[in-house]
Amino acid sequence: MAEQQEKNLILRSITKRFGDVEAVQDVTLEVRGGEFFTLLGPSGCGKTTLLRMIAGLEIPDNGQVLLGGDDITNLPATKRQVNTVFQSYALFPHLTIFENVAFGLRSRKVANDEVGKRVYRRLEMLGIQEMAQRKPHQLSGGQKQRVALARALVNEPDVLLLDEPMSALDAKLRGQVQVELKRLQRKLGKTFILVTHDQAEALVCSDRVAVMRRGKVIQYGTPEEVYDIPVNRFVAEFLGAANLLTYQVAEGGVQTPVGFLKLDRDAPKPEGTLAIRPEWIRISEEEPPVNGVRATVRETIYRGTNFDVWFDPGPIRVRTSSYKHFHPGDQAWLKLAPEELVVLDD
Ligand code: ATP
After folding, report:
1. Is 196 near ligand 1, meaning CB less than 6 Å away?
2. How far, in Å, CA of 195 to CA of 202, rounded?
């Protein structure tokens, strides 16, 4: 544990500009040694630029990068205990899988038998040892992705950077690889930093997530924290479906477009926005004792594992696992429980 803590990665007030574009603005983060940390945000929010500064492929205009207490801000990429798996995998097409993985060890003049041992250990760990003599074009997307991981891990970096490494995989394979990646990270106990714009991927893989927008970190915390208690509209909507309700403070609660609702704490501002996730709303035939909304079904959408039912007033979206089919015009009570209503900053 103490050893892992020594490998904490600290980004202190990092700023990076490209001409007029402030790609990263005053970002401060601490990634703990041995954790799976994800930079999540829409295209252009600065996550890749931040990753490249950790890798040493860009130098910040301001701020510091510290690894295990050492200032590595200006240290060349090759001198850092950091390896990157790129989106394109960047495998050498003319080399076998074995030689692709061995490349870093060979350039560091590691002895031949040691190279063999270490390369096979990683290939076996990732289940691709039978492919050792193939060339990259003879592999599937998922297999190439494993080779890229093996190649980065064979150098035993303190920090592994993953720049959208699953974006070339189809949806089903991506789901499997996400779980594998998380298991691998737990087994190795190394720090993994993943860049993605896919919120589901971030929630599956990470110990903690930093949600970025326009060069800034808007919120960071465990997947549960950012999903359950988003700080603002952007985070609430980026991390999944959210019902957003404007409110005005009233006696004992708030007035909203769907009626009067109680909160489990005082609203911080006289007016603002509340969020509630569609799967947190309960549907009942009886009027709930608090925060019941009499509602009419507008539309239902079947999603395989559940239904999304859109109700008036609102529309309020409710995600239900119920086999009960709702039809437009059906009436029901919705319960928007006080403890499920999140008051947003903006
Ligand atoms: P994506 O998911 O699309 O890769 P991102 O969140 O990783 O996006 P960055 O690639 O970090 O975003 O880019 C952040 C901003 O900086 C963008 O506006 C981008 O156009 C700009 N930018 C990035 N690299 C450069 C560069 N080398 N020269 C000029 N502008 C750049």
Report:
1. no
2. 9
